[in-house]
What does this fold into?
Amino acid sequence: MGIKSFPGYAAAGLVLAAMVLAPFALLSRFTGLVGNLGLRSHPKFTGGPVLRILDRGGYQVAISAPAGPVGPLEWGPRFVQVSWSPASALPGLVEEQLDLEGSGHPQVRVAFQVPADPALSLTGRMEVLDPARVAPATILSRNGPELLVRLDQRIVARFRMN
Amino acid sequence: MADVPQIPFRSWPRAALLALPMALWALLMMRPAWSGGDGVARLTAFLAEAFMVALFLLMLRTGRTQRWRKLFFITLGFLFPAGFIIELVRLRGSMSLPVERVISGDTPFCFMVIPMTVVPAALSRVLIFPGSILPKAGNPHAVATMVALWLVATLVLGKAWCAYGCFFGGLEEGFASLRRRPVLKALDPVFRYGPWAVLATIVLLSAASYAPTYCQWLCPFKAVTEFPEVTGGQTLLQAVIFVSLFLGLVVVLPLLTKKRTQCAFFCPFGAFQTLFARISPFRIRIHRDDCRDCGACARACPTLALDAGGIRRGAPRASCMRCGACVDACGTGAVRWHLAGTRAPSERARLLFLYAGWGFACLFGGTIIASSLASLIRLFR
It folds into this structure.
């Protein structure tokens, strides 16, 4: 092995070192590095950060910030996500007037049954009180644009905004 | 032709001695299953790592790479989806991805998404995937974990990820191995630019739409992993596309061509990984003095990375995944393993590469084989 070959063998040594260190240090170090990049999930998936929490005695209602397109060329509807938790503490019928944007006036009235069996699909009714702010709709369901689903101990609804 | 290297058959004791470090490494890889797993997990960890060490030993004994690597890769390719589907059905009762999992951020992150996430993450610090950033109880395959794994794989393997890490490639390799001879022999080389075209398209579309376009519309492997729950016309169309691409590119074309057609003509992640091919110092070189231009190496290449032009140039294209098929196919020893910047003999370069590449295969593929086997055993127990 001549001096000219040293960089090649050194590179091979580094590759081997990276492989050996991977399960003991590199993977956890890299996971931490990526975790610290300050990335957040797109709010269209997770619903965005919670802005206000309303205490209803036995349960809470969390209202998230309006979520919608983030990218400069992105398209898609804006929505506000609302979640009720814990589901086990909810009454059999939930009826709420919700101020989705924190303007001081309710924009929607919602009502849905909470079945005792968590496997059962949820269906709800909604009435738009402020058609200028909330898109017209009457039904909340698992597959609809106005979403209503159960996530373990949370019941989550999404309302499309204008 | 006097200095043409012979295929280095080794004696069993010498091969065993050289395989000893890999055996010790494999023992280390079994440690999590032995310390925290049940009887099934321990058994499958032992079987998987013993399998990996046995293949490594055979590589050293015979001097051949592709035959033994292919055995591992096909095993990985077929066991991964089996184990994944069993776990999905056990946890959710179906392969489809329900909206609840999307909102919860519980979707396992797949390395295929990485190229699409770069632009939106750089512009808005937003991740365009419904998974959690850090691992959590419902989702150990979080974004940070999988990106870290990809970083390590890229450092260790570079483009060789496609031959020693990517479980999806094993499926194609399996179907490509079923026939003795190809039915379709003349493949237009222009299709080799397909992965670059797909990569450019999905990166641009994802940057514009802030959505993982490839996962939503084009990934053939959704057919054997998870796909959006069919709730309407759009999701039905998506499912039809996934299944069609899978059948066409992963099953039928590999059967007809004996090539990994999805990798060669379509896979955007393969193209993305080619960008990092030069990170690895390990290469394949063709020594013109010993070459008879018989074309056996080009015919053996599963991804069309080697052609007549490459043979004349003395090197395959950057998309070469270091599977070793061309080296094994060469009857004159003209195609050799090479360590960049050195005159290392082919076998030394191969050995150094295999210690790293096969070590990663034990770490990643070996544990996947073990966990998938465990899922299968538990299914029938």
